[in-house]
Amino acid sequence: MIRSRMSRFPSIPLVLLAVLVAGATGHAQLSFTSAIDLALRNSPRVKMAEAEAARARAALAEAQDVYIPSLMASNGLGYSYGYPLGTPTLFSFQAQSLVFNFSQHDYIRAARAGLDATNLSLKDVRQQVAEDAAIAYLELSRAQERKAAMDQESGYAARLASIVRERLDAGQDTEMEVTRARRTVVQIKLQQLQMDDEIAAQSDHLLRLLGLPGQRIDTIRDSIPEIPVVAAADNSLPDSPAVLAAFATAKSRREQAFGDSRYTWLPQISFAAQYSRFSTFNNYQLYYPAIENNFNAVGVGIQIQLPLFDAAHKAKARESLAIADSSQQEALYARQQEAEGRIKRQHSADELRLRLELAGLDNDLAKQQLDALLIEISNGTGNSNGPQMTPKDEQNARIQERQKYLDLLDSEFQLRQIEIGLLRQSGQLEAWLKSVATAAPASDSVTPAKP
Asked: N or C: which end of the chain has fewer CB within 10 A?
């Protein structure tokens, strides 16, 4: 079996060492590719799938090795009185194996298809774990960026509250404006507290995926690669490993059912051989005179069996056929569900791209309005159709710009989440991750965070 590996990721011992060193002084920064590699190496789901693949390999070897003679040795020593009970054998060797069976080749093909299914399931599990880790990393990165933007927004809100209080003292504002400014401060503090909780939860989730619970990490935004756009969903896209595994399982069960059906009225040929060494004590030679001249016995033979009637085996064949039919329909249903999900994701991605573009334009517009406002305040000029711009207007504009930036971060994450899901469904996720790992610089690993 060729094991599916997303290789060429940064060195894991170096990553773990850097995590431990950084953990002793505070927390560390972890790149996107390092996070994916750690998740794949430490995931219990991947290890379970690898164990299942090992079981399938053993099952295939078991089906093939029935043609290899098995060898068994036995001996028996004891005392008997009177006529000997059984053959006077000191020790013996027996060998036996299957020579021919119409069903056995079907069972071997079933085991081989089962191995293909487990390999494909392993590949699918690895891609699921990689997708989970990638999305968790993106979500933590978004949360940390939102927290930084909220900290800036909180400073602007505090400055706004101070300005409004000064304007109230000067008789230029009302108590309502003071209350509104204080409400903005409290609202942002609440959002900051909620964001701290979200960061803690997302960090714990990601670290558990990576197998590093108890650590503390920061994401590196620059390490997040561009996600390629998946072509529009159509029938030309290949099936995912999960669907291919379902069809391989159906094939395995079909071969098993075919083998079970070819039992009665078909010969089964077995090989057997035995060597025995006879005993001469206890007066066995009195009852077996030939022992005095020859103490050895060798036998080699072929046994042919022809099953004529076996109701239980016929029922077993019908059961196997029903299971095979059910597996085939399960595979077809999985393919149908995947196609429908792919189309829905594609449509969602198209919508989210427009939402992201709109959020970007809103953010750009807020920045441009802020820049224009700062120029007006700096020059001491106002809008010809409105009142003079003040520091209060500046802080409101800065808060508005940060809000638009938070909306932009949310839209960007939602699009990336959908695009990664499309990559996995289209079978392109593993190739993308390999290309990302190959293109990543050598220093792209866990590094100590700046104090």
From this structure: C
Q: What is the DSSP letter of 172?
A: S
- Report helix, strand and coil shares of the chain as percent, to nearest 5: 65, 10, 25
- pLDDT, tens digit, 9 for 90 and up, residues 367-388: 998 898 888 887 765 555 556 6
From residue 205, how far is each of 109, 143, 293, 332, 371 by CA, in Å? 42, 13, 80, 34, 40
115: left (phi over 0), alpha (psi -120 to 50) or beta: alpha
- The alpha carbon dihedral of 165, 166, 169, 172 has a sign of negative
Q: Which CATH architecture has domain 32-67+102-266+307-429?
A: Up-down Bundle (1.20)
Place of tokens 């108590």: 175
CA distances from 421 to 279, 301, 429, 432 (A): 74, 61, 8, 12
How far apart CA 289 and CA 278 sit, in angstroms, is 12
pLDDT at 293 (0 to 100): 65
CA distance 326 to 371: 66
Separation between Cα atoms, residue 7 and residue 294, nearest integer Å = 66
Q: For residue 444, what pLDDT is reported?
A: 43
